[in-house]
Amino acid sequence: MRKLCLAVLGATLVASVASAASDGIGQMGVFYANVGWIGQAAATTAGDEIIADVTSFDEVQSYDLNGTEDWVIANTGDGDVDCLVLFGYTPETIYAPGNADADDSPLEQFIDDGNFVMNTADYIFYVTAGGGTNGDVGVKTIMDGSLDLWTDNNGTDPTADGAKYTPSLDSFNSNRSFKIEQVDADPVWDAEVIFADGALGADPVVLRNNETGGRVGIWMQVSDDSLNRGEVAVEIFNNWVPTAIATAVDPAGKATTTWGQLKGL
Ligand SMILES: [Ca+2]
Ligand SMILES: [Ca+2]
Ligand SMILES: [Ca+2]
């Protein structure tokens, strides 16, 4: 009887270690102390919804400018996939305004380490201290490519993946979509999942770097405070992220190592 109890206890311990260590999904940081192309109230409402309802990441919290810098640095090189959520404003504490830091910014290093950045409202990485100081060079510098998102009035409709993972997503006009033909032409960035698309591009969409595993995504890049941004983001994070990230090979090899160790048990 005692032996059986120990065996059950051992199995329970192994199972809990496996679920905590093998999914590779880390923490989420939400920055809405500054916003771009969205009202502060709408951003706060959506950000608070994300903080309250996202269950796929641990420790989902908001951070101020300095807190975001600390959080980004702490979650670079720590072996799991962390997600930074932005509301159209790129914190100057993680990326020097005006694209002064070509390759060594904390933001670029965070992405190159296999982490995930998701942006809504204004053109990703465009607005920072001083307004549109990064401009459309921001995304090119941070992603080391030639992508642009000039797609005014791109009427988007949910794709099959959109209907599957984010059923609350309705058709809307995206003014800053990723252009899929540009993504296809880029040797390192792939469209990992497209939740909605239109004639000019995709939004929401997550791009993945096939060399580093880093992810850059957008959802609802348009100035429209009536959109259900919080609801759609929560569905993307809770429904899609576990299917994508939990099964991907950790670029640092830690998930693989963990599985090897568990098999050894
Ligand atoms: Ca982490
Ligand atoms: Ca990390
Ligand atoms: Ca760069």
Can you offer a commentary on this structure?
It is a single chain. The chain has 265 residues and is α/β, with parallel strands linked by helices. It has one domain: Rossmann fold (3-Layer(aba) Sandwich), CATH 3.40.50. Helix content is 37%, strand content 18%. It has 9 helices and 10 strands. The strands form 2 sheets. A 7-stranded mixed sheet has the order 2-1-3-4-10-9-7, with helices on both faces. Strands 6-5-8 form a 3-stranded antiparallel sheet. α4 links the parallel β3 and β4. α2 packs parallel to α8. The longest helix has 20 residues. The C terminus is likely disordered.
Brief overview:
With 265 residues, the protein is an alpha/beta fold. The chain has helices at residues 2-21, 40-53, 65-74, 106-112, 137-143, 160-165, 180-185, 229-244, 254-264, and strands at 25-31, 58-62, 81-86, 116-120, 154-158, 172-174, 189-194, 196-197, 205-209, 215-219.
Structural class: alpha/beta
- Which series of helices and strands comes N to C? HEHEHEHEHEHEHEEEEHH
- Name the CATH architecture: 3-Layer(aba) Sandwich
Order the strands across the largest sheet as they lie in space. Answer: 2-1-3-4-10-9-7
Poorly predicted tracts of residues: 9-21, 254-265
Strand content: 15-25%
Number of domains: 1
Average pLDDT: 90
Ligand set = calcium ion
Give the termini separation: 22 Å
| Computed Rg | 19 Å
Instruction: Specify the overall morphology.
Output: globular
Q: Estimate percent helicity.
A: 25-40%
Task: Count helical runs.
Answer: 9
